[in-house]
């Protein structure tokens, strides 16, 4: 690797700060006491967090978001990986047609399926449940497509070596393909998680009980409740926002180092 | 150990012409078979068919007397060394070697001990905790070998397992393979481009060309009584000399046949010998150690002769090459098939 050019490093730092500034500013504001803030003074406090968690149930929303996004990611990625493996490695009648159908689902805007999904879930009585929040999101054509492309890049000789070693197809998948595709699977998982974390419309229509609110619904409701004397209590909203973005940031930092490079190096001549 | 019987195996890949044109082989349990042949003649394809990684287009494969055409590879009890190694890149050397044992339910301590002893044999101990990406080509090849050796399979398929090793290591590994064969008594099918390996390891050698099995016989038979000119020229270092019978004194009676003379049965002399001989002009010589290979021009064409280094004095160019008519092989000029013409007429 070339030694870092200080100019490039400096520019990257400045660019990074510019991108981060809104987040940094809102985190900073979330620690300000509202009255002092509006008076133009500085007074650090944790009251906004206490308020968001205590009076506005953000701990509960956080838990809901983690449950829903977590399960959508784990179940969705598991299913997508299995579908991707099948599409990448097996030839079966109608396989190409089926894969075409998967691609086709990518071209349907999600809002179009909103009402059919709602009616379906109403019929099976799953509105206002975790299942109702999770089920519509777990089939993910994009993830299946993306992972299939990645798996096709893994030399088939590795599958064959595993078969010779005595592996069954599912062992080939879990012991050979998945570990090698880990960077792709984690990237996809992060993407799915963030997408679901930020999902607003579906939880809004599928859930009416406050117990099942996700962070995004809770955050939106903070505006409507209009708690401050003179309008929106911004430091409170920023505390709630920080609660919303922090888990994603932490998650990203934790898996970031796995995302970068692939590991098929040295497998075949 | 398994018996493997191939009957009239044909194979065409999905996109492309037929690459095996009816190969039949009858392999005894515990036999060591070496397959040789030029690049692209179908050796790897044949191994993949036996392994169950490809389906043959027609013909039958039987393992231990049972038709195995549709038996999946996991159920054939075959260990394979791939020509391109196919190591698991996410596993350490130890895990690569032990993976097959793990799949068979061997306990961790036991399989690691096994992997370590195999690594010891293959001189891989210092690399047990490395991943394949951090190994040299020869080290990777030995891991590929270790993965097969750790298993107690009834058949081993080895696709050029020693091609990337240095000479000393290759000789050592050849001995290990022979030892493995002796210990396990497993059936082995081994592909190589190396003559010494072929002749020294094989119980029987299969010579292939362009998807055909030309000859399948014991090494001595292949060497002494090759079925045709291709087999004769393919095995033996340096390659057999060919010359028209009409130009070789003492062999004219063979008519228009081609005569094959191995370099080591020829003798170089300074004076015309008593028996049949051709005069020769030395073009250049190659030292191979104790021997030297003489490249000569003769009235019958170019000839190579293996001789001891002191056989001819330095600087001498005009020589005689003598031979014994009973050592000569004869091949039909048109088909290349070996013939045995009568020389007494
Ligand atoms: N997957 C494939 N699809 C189409 N043709 C193939 C495929 N694999 C091999 N072939 C063709 O089949 C023929 C035999 O190939 P094979 O790999 O068996 O040769 P080989 O004898 O092992 O050669 P080498 O000594 O170079 O390894 C070649 O002509 C090759 O191009
Ligand atoms: Mg090959």
TrEMBL record, chain A:
Record's subcellular location: Cell inner membrane; Cell membrane
BP term (GO), one: transmembrane transport
Keyword tags: Cell inner membrane, Cell membrane, Membrane, Transmembrane, Transmembrane helix, Transport
ABC transmembrane type-1 domain sequence ranges: 62-255
Matching CDD domains: TM_PBP2
Pfam families per record: BPD_transp_1
Coiled-coil ranges (or none): none
Membrane topology, as annotated: Multi-pass membrane protein
Cellular compartments per GO CC: plasma membrane
TM regions (residue ranges): 7-28, 61-85, 97-118, 130-151, 172-194, 234-255
Main location: membrane
Assembly and oligomerization: The complex is composed of two ATP-binding proteins (UgpC), two transmembrane proteins (UgpA and UgpE) and a solute-binding protein (UgpB).
Primary role: Part of the ABC transporter complex UgpBAEC involved in sn-glycerol-3-phosphate (G3P) import. Probably responsible for the translocation of the substrate across the membrane.
Family named by the database record: Belongs to the binding-protein-dependent transport system permease family.
The protein, known as: sn-glycerol-3-phosphate transport system permease protein UgpE
UniProtKB/TrEMBL annotation, chain B:
SUPFAM superfamilies assigned to the protein according to its UniProt record, in alphabetical order: MOP-like, P-loop containing nucleoside triphosphate hydrolases
Membrane topology: Peripheral membrane protein
Matching Gene3D superfamilies: 2.40.50.100, Nucleic acid-binding proteins (2.40.50.140), P-loop containing nucleotide triphosphate hydrolases (3.40.50.300)
InterPro entries noted in UniProt: AAA+_ATPase, ABC_transporter-like_ATP-bd, ABC_transporter-like_CS, ABC_transpr_MalK-like, ABC_transpr_MalK/UgpC-like, Mo/tungstate-bd_C_term_dom, NA-bd_OB-fold, P-loop_NTPase
Keyword annotations from UniProtKB, A to Z: ATP-binding, Nucleotide-binding, Transport
Any one GO molecular function term: ABC-type transporter activity
Organism: Nitratireductor indicus C115
Protein localization: Cell inner membrane
Annotated family: Belongs to the ABC transporter superfamily.
A single GO BP: carbohydrate transport
KW Hydrolase (keyword) present: no
The UniProt record lists the keyword Chloroplast: no
Name used for this protein in its record: ABC transporter nucleotide binding/ATPase (Glycerol-3-phosphate)
Any GO CC annotation of this UniProt entry: ATP-binding cassette (ABC) transporter complex, substrate-binding subunit-containing
Domain named ABC transporter: residues: 4-235
